[in-house]
Amino acid sequence: MAAAAGVVLLVAGCGGEGGSDKGGASVTGGTSAGGSGSGGSGGGKLDGAAVTKEIEAAATGAGFAQDASGEDVAPELKDCMVTWTADAEKAADPVKSYAGTITALTGGGWKELRSNEMNGSVIKSLEKSGWTLQASNHAQGPVKLVMFVAADSGPECAAKIAADNEKARQSS
After folding, report:
1. pTM, whole model, 2 decimals?
2. Which of 29-33, 41-45, 88-92 has the lowest mean pLDDT?
3. Is 58 buried (19+), middle (13-18) or exposed (0-12) by CB count in 10 A?
4. How much is the pLDDT for 44?
5. 103/69: higher pLDDT
6. Alpha carbons 116 and 136: distance in angstroms, whole number
7. What span, in angstroms and rounded, lies between the C-alpha atoms of 30 and 133?
8. DSSP state of 66
9. Would strands 20-21 and 111-118 be described as parallel, antiparallel, or unpaired?
10. What stretch of H or E contains 51?
C-alpha cells in the first residue's frame, strides 16, 4: 500500500551516511524556488498522472518494463503520490537501465538532489515542480527491486500522506 511507499520516501529522503546532498530537500519541504512549484514543459504544476507519464517514458525508454505486481497508491493519494516498479528480472541490464532512466529524467527537467549508495544499492532523490522522486535500485542483491516513488511536496499532500501512513500504522 501507500504506507510502504511512504516509508521508502521517508527513509530515502533523510540523507544518510555515504550519500551526497545536492540540494537539501526534504520529502515534505521541497526546495523549488517557486513554492508550490511551477514548471514542466507547459509551465503548469505537475499532477500525479503527468509524473507517472514522465517516469514511465523514462523507464521504458531505458529498457525497463513495469512490474504489474508493483504497489498501488490509495485512491485518495493519486494526485499526491505515484509509484512505478520496474521488472528488474526482465531487464537485460538493470544497472544500465536505471542509469538511463535517471539520465532521461534529469534531461526532462528533474534535478538530482542527493545520491546514496550502500551495499550495491543506489537511491537517488530528484525534484521537479514541487515533486520529490526517490529512485531506488536494489538490482544487485538477491531481491531484484527497482522502484520509483514520487510525492507532491506541498503541505496539503504531505498532510494526506501522513494521515494515510498513520491509518496504516493503526491498522497493523
Report:
1. 0.75
2. 29-33
3. buried
4. 59
5. 103
6. 10
7. 11
8. B
9. antiparallel
10. helix 48-61
